[in-house]
């Protein structure tokens, strides 16, 4: 599920400190509901389109649980798609306290070799979304 990207012609994109050069994309975390079914994160203007959602240390928000298998498969496919276009994922910003769940996934070896993961807490918690920066060579 897409989160914010940036303006068509770039430039400052508040409240983000990045998202200025067209190479940053936020994705809202994939979740499963109380029945274990994969559903979109419930976003609306009332929760700042999902950005105000807080997941606890058990990766839960109400009945919703972060689906780390889907998240890691998404990053894997995104990496393959980027390479097909001749570009790369530079880094992924995601809550360092939740990241260990990605280490348990089958493709972690591929992910850690092909993209950097944030290791420090950033200015906003990245629990309900993960931020991906791409690298594109200059012409
Ligand atoms: Zn972002």
Write down the overall mean pLDDT.
94
- Number of discrete domains: 1
Structural class: alpha+beta
Give me the number of helical elements.
3
- Give the low-pLDDT segments: none
Q: What percent of residues are in strands?
A: 15-25%
State the order of secondary-structure elements, H for helix, E for strand.
Answer: EEEEEHEHHEE
Name the hetero compounds present: zinc ion
Radius of gyration: 15 Å
Major pleated sheet? 4 strands, mixed
For the secondary structure, the number of strands is: 8
Could you please describe the fold and organization of this structure?
By secondary structure, the chain is of the alpha+beta class. It has three helices and eight strands, in the order βββββαβααββ. It has a four-stranded mixed β-sheet with strand order 1-8-6-7, with helices on one face. Strands 3-2-5-4 form a four-stranded antiparallel β-sheet. It is globular, with a radius of gyration of 15 Å. The mean pLDDT is 94. Zinc ion is lined by residues 16, 19, 24, 26, 131. The site of zinc ion has 5 residues, from β1.
